[in-house]
Design a protein that fits this description.
The protein contains 3 helices and 6 strands. By secondary structure, the chain is α+β, with helices and mostly antiparallel strands. The chain has one domain. A hairpin with a 5-residue loop joins strand 3 and strand 4. InterPro entries: Metallo-depent_PP-like.
C-alpha cells in the first residue's frame, strides 16, 4: 500500500480495491493460477488490468473463447478533475502457460478497443505493471 505524507490524501480513489494492475508474470506460467486470477479478480475489479493478456475459457454455450484476464483499461478522474486512462501492458513475455496468451504491443495498439480507449484523450495516460491502482 502506498504511504501518503501526513495530512495529504491520494490523488484519486479507485472504484474498487485492487491487488494488482495486471497479472504478475509468475502467475501466467500455469493455466490454473491464471484462471484463478481471472475469476477472483479480473471479473470483479475494473482496475485489475490486463490490456494484452488473454485466457481461453468456455462461454455459456460451452465454446472456447479467448477473453482478457482482467479489464483492458481503466479510466477515472482525480479529485482535481484530471482525467486518467491506465493500461496494464505486459512486454515481451513468452513463458505463459497453455491457453494463456500475451499479445504483442504492436498488435494490441491496432485493436478497436484500444483505439476507442485513447480517442477521449485524457489528461494523462499511464502504463501500469504490477502495481496497485
Amino acid at each position: 500500500m502506498t504511504s501518503w505524507p501526513s495530512g495529504s490524501v491520494p490523488p484519486y480513489k479507485p472504484a474498487a480495491p485492487c491487488a494488482h494492475a495486471i497479472p504478475p508474470t509468475h502467475e501466467l506460467y500455469t493455466y490454473a493460477k491464471t484462471f484463478n486470477m481471472h475469476m477472483k479478480f479480473g471479473q470483479h475489479y475494473s482496475c485489475y488490468l490486463s490490456s494484452n493478456v488473454n485466457i481461453t475459457v468456455f462461454n455459456t454455450n460451452n465454446n472456447s473463447v479467448s477473453v482478457p484476464v482482467g479489464s483492458r483499461f481503466h479510466q477515472f478522474k482525480t479529485r482535481k478533475n484530471h482525467s486518467v486512462t491506465v493500461f496494464g501492458i505486459l512486454f515481451n513475455f513468452t513463458g505463459s502457460g497453455v491457453n494463456t496468451t500475451v499479445q504483442i504491443v504492436e498488435d494490441m495498439i491496432l485493436e478497436p478497443w484500444f483505439i476507442d480507449a485513447i480517442a477521449d484523450k485524457p489528461d494523462v495516460f499511464l502504463r501500469a505493471h504490477v502495481c496497485r491502482l
